[in-house]
Amino acid sequence: MKTVPYLIFSGICEEAMTFYAKTLGGKIESLMRFKDAPPEMPRHAGWDEKVMHAHVTADGAEVMGSDAPPQYYQKPQGHSVSLHLDRPAEAERIFAALSAGGNVTMPMAKTFWAERFGMVTDRFGIPWLIDCPPAKG
Questions:
Q1: Domains of the chain by residue range
Q2: Which of 15, 33, 85, 114 counts the highest number of beta carbons within 10 A?
Q3: pLDDT of residue 132
Q4: How many angstroms from the chain centroid is the CA of residue 95?
Q5: Quick one: 30 exposed, middle or buried, by C-beta within 10 A (0-12, 13-18, 19+)?
Q6: Which of 37-41, 46-50, 52-56 has the highest mean pLDDT?
Q7: pTM: predicted TM-score of the whole model, two decimal places
Q8: Does CATH place domain 6-67 in 3.10.129.10?
Q9: pLDDT tens-digit profile of 104-122?
């Protein structure tokens, strides 16, 4: 069993998932638009090009997502996507990328439990925890 974060966006899923694939050094495995759904499925006007489902993989990590029509969208709260990295430089790089245009709630720093740790809500409204544990000696 594994857990995969499924992120809901307000019409910007493709942009976000493209950014995550690039930032995490991965790729978009699949991207299905609402227009690709069977004809009998209810549709929202103007949403044919929006993302019904997307899947990004990167070095063992996975993130999935979709767009939600305005009447169903809720701003993310009460959770964070936690990303654990082995290399401090990679943790710093990813944190910097997620921070661009976002809101840093805890700057990347050494803590008593981690070599590097930081918290940020990216420009797409998704909260992240970036963690790089101490080197094992």
A1: 6-67, 81-132
A2: 85
A3: 96
A4: 12
A5: exposed
A6: 52-56
A7: 0.93
A8: no
A9: 999 999 999 999 999 999 9
